[in-house]
Specification:
Layout: H1 6-14, H2 28-38, H3 43-56, H4 60-104, H5 109-123, H6 131-139, H7 143-150, H8 159-172, H9 176-212, H10 214-224, H11 229-235, H12 237-266
Helix pairs in contact: 3-4, 4-5, 4-9, 5-6, 6-7, 7-8, 8-9, 9-12, 11-12
C-alpha cells in the first residue's frame, strides 16, 4: 500500500479511496504529526508563556511557563507510569488465564508456564513475562522466588498470588488450575472495582479542572470588555500581587482537590 508505482495507486482507487492520492510531498498533517511525536506536551507550557509574553509585553509569563514545564513533565510521567501499571496488571490476569487453560489441557506446570510466558512475550508489552521466571521454568529453578521478584514491579503484584498457588500445588499436590482460576477471578474483580471507582471519581476530577480554568475565563472576559487585564496584572504592583496571591491559591486548591480524589481512589 505504501508503494509509489501505478499498480498500487490503481489498487487504492479500487478500494474506495475516492480517487488518486499523492503519496509523496510534505503536508501540514504530516508536519503536525511529526512535531507531536518529537515535542513533549510539557513544552507547550513554555510556548503558552511566550505567547502571553508577546501579548502582555512582559517576561513574567515566560518565567511562569518555564516553571510549569517540570510540573507538566511530572504529570505526564505519572500518567505513563499509571498506564504501564495497568498494562502489567492486565498481563498478569491474562497469564493466569492462559496458564490455567494449559494445565487443564494436560500440560505439566513447568511446560504450561513456559507456553504461557511465550504467548505473553509474543503479544509484546507483557510485564509479567519476565526473563527470570522463564529461565526458572525452563531449567527447573525456583519458580515461586522468580515470580516474587517479578511481582516487585508496579502493577504485577498479582504474581505473588501465582507464586503462592505454584508453591501449594508443588509442595502439597493441590490442583493448580483451580487456584489459578480463582486468582484470575479475584484479580479481574479487583480491576473492575478500580475501574468503577475511577469512573465515579471522574466527575470530581473534572470539576476540579474546570474550577482551575475559571481564572482564564475571567481574563478572557476582561479582555473582551476592554479592561486589558494583562496590562494590569503584569505592569502594576497591585496586579503582580494579585497574580502571585491568585497563583498560590490556585495551586493550593488544585492540589487539595486532587489529593482528596487520589485519597479516595487509594482506599
Amino acid at each position: 500500500m505504501g508503494a509509489r508505482d501505478p499498480w498500487a495507486r490503481r489498487v487504492r482507487v479500487v478500494l474506495g479511496s475516492g480517487g488518486p492520492q499523492k503519496t509523496d510531498g510534505w503536508s501540514w498533517r504530516r508536519a503536525v504529526a511529526a512535531g507531536r511525536g518529537r515535542v513533549r506536551h510539557e513544552w507547550w507550557c513554555l510556548a503558552a508563556g511566550l505567547g502571553l509574553a508577546l501579548l502582555g509585553e512582559s517576561v513574567v509569563p515566560v518565567v511562569l511557563g518555564a516553571a510549569g514545564v517540570p510540573l507538566a513533565r511530572r504529570v505526564r510521567r505519572a500518567g505513563q507510569a499509571r498506564r504501564a501499571r495497568e498494562r502489567r496488571g492486565a498481563a498478569v490476569i491474562e497469564l493466569c488465564g492462559v496458564l490455567a487453560g494449559e494445565v487443564r489441557a494436560g500440560r505439566q506446570p513447568g511446560e504450561a508456564l513456559r507456553v504461557a510466558l511465550g504467548e505473553a512475550e509474543a503479544r509484546d508489552g507483557s510485564g509479567a513475562a519476565r526473563s527470570g521466571v522463564l529461565a526458572a521454568a525452563r531449567f527447573g529453578g525456583d519458580v515461586p522466588g522468580a515470580l516474587g521478584d517479578a511481582a516487585k514491579e508496579p502493577g504485577a503484584e498479582g504474581l505473588l498470588g501465582l507464586a503462592a498457588c505454584w508453591r501449594v500445588a508443588v509442595d502439597r499436590g493441590a490442583g493448580l488450575a483451580a487456584g489459578l482460576e480463582r486468582l484470575e477471578a479475584a484479580l479481574r474483580s479487583e480491576r473492575d472495582q478500580r475501574a468503577d471507582l475511577r469512573a465515579q471519581l471522574a466527575g470530581a476530577r473534572s470539576t476540579a479542572v474546570l474550577l482551575a480554568g475559571l481564572p482564564l475565563l475571567g481574563l478572557l472576559m476582561g479582555t473582551a470588555l476592554g479592561a486589558d487585564p494583562l496590562r494590569v496584572l503584569l505592569h502594576t504592583g497591585a496586579g503582580l500581587g494579585c497574580l502571585a496571591t491568585g497563583g498560590v491559591l490556585e495551586g493550593a486548591g488544585v492540589w487539595w482537590a486532587l489529593r482528596i480524589v487520589r485519597g479516595a481512589e487509594g482506599r
